[in-house]
Specification:
Blueprint (H helix, E strand, L loop, with lengths): L1 E6 L3 H14 L7 E2 L7 E8 L5 H9 L7 E11 L7 E8 L2 H15 L12 E6 L7 H9 L4 E7 L1 E8 L6 E9 L6
Antiparallel strand pairs: 1-3, 1-8, 2-6, 4-5, 4-7, 5-6, 8-9
Helix pairs in contact: 2-3
Length: 187
């Protein structure tokens, strides 16, 4: 099983991003665009995992908690690693301070259960497109710069999910395996 831990977000934000992608698609026809229904805010990527490890994962992340919900605002566009040699177009996620803390808590819990800890800093984002090469996307870089501070919506989340990524010829499909509320005590 190919697994990851992630936050979901409202359909209204997905619809706004769907409209954005339709506007941007002609600017980079060679891009591999992500379907909005597949977008999520990844807290921890686990990769290929034996089904027998599901109990370890559940036990590790069930204890993750936060005193309040995570607040997120989806705003702006950018590129990884940078716009001169883009590999990924992303939508930024401005979040309450407890989001990085929650991601670190999940990572620590899973590291204690035997999963490799993250080596890169946590950067919340939504992947919109991936590029095989930067050729021909100058127009997209320019267009992204024009809407770099656009607001695409917001979310308040109280739970995260264990997802399974199922590879298909049409692209990966994500299935929720289990839900984990992280706001305890009725906050």
């Amino acid at each position: 099983m190919r697994l990851f831990i992630a936050l979901d977000f409202p359909d209204a934000v997905r619809e706004t991003l769907r409209e954005l992608i339709q506007k941007l698609r002609p600017e980079a026809r060679g891009a591999k665009w992500v379907r909005p229904e597949s977008m999520h805010v990844t807290l921890k990527f686990l990769g290929e995992t034996e089904p027998a490890r599901l109990g370890d994962i559940r036990g590790a992340v069930a204890a993750a908690n936060s005193p309040r919900p995570v607040e997120m605002r989806f705003r702006g566009l950018g590129f990884f690693p940078h716009e001169r040699r883009p590999r990924v177009l992303w939508c930024g996620v401005e979040a309450s301070p407890n989001l990085p803390q929650l991601a670190a808590d999940v990572d620590r819990s899973l590291a204690a259960a035997g999963f490799a800890p993250e080596s890169r800093p946590f950067v919340p984002h939504l992947t919109l497109a991936r590029f095989e090469s930067p050729r021909g996307i100058e127009s997209l870089v320019g267009k992204a710069g024009e809407i770099a501070s656009t607001d695409f919506g917001s979310a308040i989340e109280r739970e995260f999910y264990l997802f399974e990524s199922i590879r298909k010829p049409s692209g990966a499909e994500y299935r929720r395996v289990e839900r984990f509320p992280f706001v305890k005590d009725g906050a």
